[in-house]
Write a structure and sequence with these properties.
single chain, 89 residues, Aspartate Aminotransferase, domain 1, 4-stranded antiparallel β-sheet, 4 strands
Amino acid sequence: FRLINQLKQKLETSGLRLLPSNTPIQPVLVGGVQDVVRISEGLKAQGILVPAIRPPTVPQNTARLRISLSASHQEADITRLADALRYLA
């Protein structure tokens, strides 16, 4: 849970809105459909895979980014992701 907590802390201090989750899957609300697609594509261009989840997969007006952490991630990965999200959002 260390990396999950580190990610949540970094994103919350950046002003990003996280939906409640204590799992390795962390949903982040960053605006509308166009915003999540733009940010997801910007992250992909930096080699970071964070899919945009949008209707009809989720209800209208709840488009989000879906961050999935794994045991192979390191603290440096979390910092890199948080910095990229801060810049793109």
